[in-house]
Task: structure prediction
Amino acid sequence: MSITDVLNSSYIKWMDTQAGDRDIVVSSRVRLARNLNKIPFPHLLDQVNGESCVQQIRDAWQKAPGPILAAMDMISFDQLPALDRQILAEKHLSSPLHADSNSIFRAILVNDEGSLSAMVNEEDHLRIQSLLPGLQLGECYSRVQDLDDEFEQNLDYAFDENRGYLTSCPTNVGTGMRASVMMHLPAIQMTGQLNHILQNIGQLGLVVRGLYGEGSEAVGNFFQISNQITLGQTEEDIYNYLQTITEQIVEQERLLRERLQTDMKYQLEDKIGRAYGILSNARVISSDEALTLFSDVRLGVDIGILKGISIFSLNELMVAVRPAHLQKRTGQDMDAIERDIKRAEVIKEKLGAVRE
Result:
């Protein structure tokens, strides 16, 4: 499957819901930062070094020493319109920072299901990531390691025996690894415990961001939790530690959901019912409002109040109503109001279809 197929498909691997704790842990991601030896970091690239960097990575892909790279497609961003680059970011295959340029030095590699991707010249020469549904940090790590090994057969990485992998940002030096989970925590938010838990997470050496990672705000009770330290720890230490903390947060969220169902049954049912009603009937709706209401509906599906809607459908819908996807759907540029109108139409259409 080509990147064009990925762009045109509504499906991406992290949307699946078979994995454990999928009602609370939306997805898991492990990312490796790698740089090429003797080539300046991306923000210092000139024409000669930029072209050399991309060509070395392209050669490594084309030589395909193993089955993983051979199953991926690569495209330079100067061959992708801004809208398509934004779609990759909305599907979490590229970062907003990476997508915001048509530079000939930027490119991306993606496999057919979107579970593996590699950004070329984002903050580092290579950002290799695996993104899977539910709590699967160990599997994500295994996949990025296998892809990293294939790359390294034909690439000379910048590596120091004492410091580890050298990266553009000092906070990534060492393993160059970031592990993260995307969590849906409505009960923790509704019971007023969010600030306390987020403060504890920070004290444990983890960082909390929004749905699209660094620079994004948390909307709709979706939070990305990741490690801050990459130096002085093994890769296994990093993802096992995050796994342990995540399991504790999952347990707390479950307990609070049970308490809400006991202590605030009617208020909870009313909140979920109103959210579904607005989504099903609104004529104009913003992206942030939609995500907030999706959170309530998702909770209703998880605890059995709403029937006939799958989590997969909600995951798919969360992406389908993002700005670039809406414009791709209509085939024309739209201003904010036009997108809000179209978003309401798409939500009404899709919710009606999944409940029939």
